[in-house]
Design a protein that fits this description.
Rossmann fold, 11 strands, EC 3.4.13.21, serine-type peptidase activity, protease, cytoplasm, hydrolase
Length: 242
């Protein structure tokens, strides 16, 4: 596996992918033909144009998988794939509908570099269950790509001790998830990302990540932390804590 999993594609005060552009361009093969999967947003053409504008200057040739033929053909022609952010339910539903879910699992398993941001990062986990998104559509299954054997929570937000909001914090939601499922969850704060190369995984970017496990206190993982052990876990779903 060769994965770059970004928490977010747009950082406050900066342009699209600007906060991670050096990392993105170093990750992608030189002068790569990049297949972009825009299905997390409704405007596929506009979304693809935004990615193209961000990466063309770096010599990356961006092609939306919806452009000029079958999505599976566009993927087969690519040197790398980027699955963009938006609504995770809409995205996963489209991956099933187009056949890209199975095709991505095979292609990335065979070595195709995979870059995800937000919803695209959610897709790399085994299940959709730790997304922050509203289920605006119903995919055939919550089963995602399973490129890594643990869950990820992009855009992770720390509890605000001064907030008067009475809804659940992100930490409370992830704790509820762990009450029903025994699988680690890596909370990626905005500006951070996960890099996976073969059997090695590390937290990178501007901020620390937060790791949640059943029966343990959340743990801070500073940028540069080796989290390769997470690649060896066996996830267990629908296993209520006793």
């Amino acid at each position: 596996m060769n994965l770059l999993l970004l928490s977010n594609s747009t950082q406050y005060g900066r342009g699209y992918l600007e906060h991670a552009l050096d990392t993105v361009t170093a990750f992608l093969p030189a002068r790569a033909r990049l297949a972009f999967v825009p299905y997390a947003l409704a405007d596929h053409d506009g979304y693809t144009a935004k990615v193209r504008a961000a990466l063309t200057g770096a010599g990356i040739e961006v092609h939306g998988v919806h452009e000029g033929g079958a999505p599976l053909d566009r993927l087969a022609e690519a040197d790398a794939v980027f699955v963009g952010g938006g609504n995770s339910f809409r995205l996963l539903s489209a991956l099933y509908r187009t056949g890209l879910r199975e095709a991505l699992v095979k292609a990335v398993g065979d070595g195709l570099p995979y870059m995800g941001a937000s919803a695209g990062t959610n897709m790399a986990a085994p299940s959709l269950r730790t997304t922050n998104d509203m289920p605006i559509v119903q995919p055939p299954s919550f089963e995602a790509l399973g490129l890594v054997p643990f869950q990820i929570n992009p855009h992770y937000l720390d509890p605000d001790p001064h907030s008067t909001h009475k809804g659940e914090t992100r930490e409370e939601r992830l704790t509820e998830f762990l009450e029903e499922n025994d699988v680690p969850v890596l909370g990626l704060r905005e500006g951070s990302w996960l890099r996976v190369t073969g059997a090695h995984a590390s937290v990178e970017g501007a901020h620390a990540a937060r790791l949640f496990r059943r029966g343990a206190e959340p743990r801070e993982l500073l940028a540069g932390s080796d989290v390769s052990e997470l690649l060896t876990v066996t996830p267990e779903y629908d296993t209520a804590a006793r």
